[in-house]
Design a protein that fits this description.
Layout lengths: L6 E9 L2 H11 L3 E7 L7 E6 L8 E6 L12 E9 L4 H10 L6 E5 L2 E7 L5 E6 L20 E9 L3 H9 L3 E6 L2 E5 L8 E6 L13 E8 L2 H14 L7 E2 L3 E7 L5 E9 L24 H8 L6
Parallel strand pairs: 1-4, 5-8, 9-12, 13-16
Antiparallel strand pairs: 1-13, 2-3, 3-4, 5-9, 6-7, 7-8, 10-11, 11-12, 14-15, 15-16
């Protein structure tokens, strides 16, 4: 069993527009944009990161906004819900705020003993806010005060046709089955980073999902450093998983592998962090380009990357 996993590092999804995506996370959910860069493999597309003040692992939602992308089709083999932790007693406040800002799909739920608020993102993304005792410090640089602000991720909910092999993988990664309710099995990591819950929904007859705007592209798990990452990579490969080589993503190193249920997992390092090329007071303000794409700056800004109004 692996002992290096801390919980979630980030969740990366697809969107259909950069401005709408930016406004939703900064002006509706009150998160900080901590990095404005581009997709390593498609530099004509932004890669936007939102989180707490420093983009602490376990708080960061990231997006590839492909202009006018077709919406994804929900189904099995995907992360269906990304949940954020909010303070106890703040659900009603958030319900009122989201409704006043025109957010769709708002629904109060009691879910596995927790007060939860479901809602949709601009592209039909599945989100939830979960009341939790969470000591992580929130970002309060927007218009959401500390008594209500998001603390970071609470959990992700995967939707699968069969949970068996994925459940074994999660246990190998250090997670333990904690609770069950109907089609949902909850897995939790002891002594995690606050973003250490994974829910698995089993729907045997559900059609496979098709990715598009509003779909989660991958979910990343945190390890402290490259040494821990290499140990995890070796253990996964020894178990039979096909794992990519280590890839430098500027703000973390990453490895990827496909899970038995179809969801793409990443293992990402906590180092070096989002302040490696920007002052902490100005994170996410300037367009930062990977070195291999630096020569494209004028072209990208002129022809491809829509200006984002803050």
């Amino acid at each position: 069993m692996l002992t290096q996993i801390n919980g979630l590092h980030h969740v990366t999804s697809l969107a259909s527009g950069a401005q709408e995506n930016n406004d939703f996370f900064t002006k509706v959910l009150g998160l900080r944009r901590v990095k404005k860069t581009v997709n390593f493999d498609a530099p004509e597309v932004y890669h936007l990161y939102y989180g707490d003040e420093l983009g602490t692992p376990g708080t960061v939602m990231t997006y590839f906004p492909f202009p006018n992308a077709r919406r994804g089709r929900p189904g099995a083999g995907e992360v269906a819900v990304t949940a954020f932790a909010i303070p106890k007693g703040s659900r009603d406040w958030w319900a009122d705020r989201l409704a006043s800002l025109g957010v769709k799909g708002i629904e109060k739920q009691d879910y596995l003993g927790e007060a939860r608020l479901r809602f949709q993102g601009p592209d039909g993304d599945g989100f939830a806010l979960v009341e939790a005792d969470d000591g992580r410090a929130p970002w309060t640089g927007g218009d959401v005060d500390a008594d209500h602000a998001i603390r970071g991720f609470h959990s992700t909910q995967m939707r699968l046709n069969d949970k068996g092999a994925t459940a074994e993988l999660l246990k190998f990664m250090g997670y333990e089955a904690q609770d069950n309710a109907g089609d949902i099995t909850r897995f939790s990591l002891q002594n995690g980073n606050g973003a250490h819950v994974i829910d698995v929904e089993t729907l045997p007859q559900a059609p496979m999902a098709a990715q598009g705007a509003g779909s989660v592209h991958h979910v990343a798990f945190s390890v402290d450093n490259r040494e821990a990452q290499l140990a995890v990579r070796k253990s996964l490969m020894d178990t039979g998983y096909q794992v990519t080589p280590v890839i430098d993503r500027d703000y973390f190193w990453a490895i990827y592998f496909r899970t038995p249920g179809g969801v793409l997992f990443e293992i990402a390092t906590n180092e070096p962090g989002f302040d490696r090329d920007e002052d902490r007071a100005h994170l996410g303000e300037a367009l930062k380009l990977p070195s291999q794409h630096a020569h494209l700056r004028d072209l990208l800004e002129r022809e491809y990357l829509e200006p984002i109004r803050d």
